[in-house]
Amino acid sequence: MKQFSDEQLIAIAQSSAERSAFDELFRRYHAQLRNFLKGKTQQATADDVLQETYIKAFTKINTFKSESSFSTWLFSIAINEYKQSLRKGGLFEKLKESLFRQPPAQYSEPAVDLIIDFSRRAAALSSEHYNVYVLSRVYGCSHREIAERASLPLGTVKTYISQAEKQLKLATGN
């Protein structure tokens, strides 16, 4: 696949859903994209956004029109995914950001206490409830995204989140 141009790989990926063609396209721009994202946020978040970009580009490759270059299209997806990650960043995500920017000796007691408290309360959840809850509240995924990722019906995802919230409230005594 390395011998093909971007345009040829796009045509292959669009016509046959050939993953190796898409993988080669993404490989060509991976380092540039990763460096671009690492300049905007911490490495773990950059890697998450990069993965979301890969998934979105793979699932939307048929919508690519050759009106711009593939790299422009791919970077616009990455920028949108990055912006979405910022919008969805809740308290726990912001806490992780602040903790991982500081050396361990500088962790604030309230921040560490919050993580420990969450970890203790979350231990009461089943693995299904925990996974769905974390995808929703920590990573900011929509119910529909969680349903797709976990191969669960949308109603089940909503129920799991609601049940997890109730269990977490019971665990705190609120």
Automatic annotation (TrEMBL):
GO biological process: DNA-templated transcription initiation
Domain RNA polymerase sigma factor 70 region 4 type: 131-168
InterPro entries referenced in this protein's UniProt entry, alphabetically: RNA_pol_sigma-70-like, RNA_pol_sigma-70_dom, RNA_pol_sigma70_ECF_CS, RNA_pol_sigma70_r2, RNA_pol_sigma70_r4_t2, RNA_pol_sigma_r2, RNA_pol_sigma_r3/r4-like, WH-like_DNA-bd_sf
Keyword DNA-binding: yes
Keyword Cytoplasm in record: no
Name of the protein in question: RNA polymerase sigma factor
Alphabetical list of NCBIfam families matching this protein: sigma70-ECF
Matches recorded under PANTHER family: RNA POLYMERASE ECF-TYPE SIGMA FACTO, RNA POLYMERASE SIGMA FACTOR HI_1459-RELATED
Keywords: DNA-binding, Sigma factor, Transcription, Transcription regulation
UniProt similarity note: Belongs to the sigma-70 factor family. ECF subfamily.
Top-rank taxon: Bacteria
Record-annotated RNA polymerase sigma-70 region domain positions: 25-88
GO molecular function: DNA binding; sigma factor activity
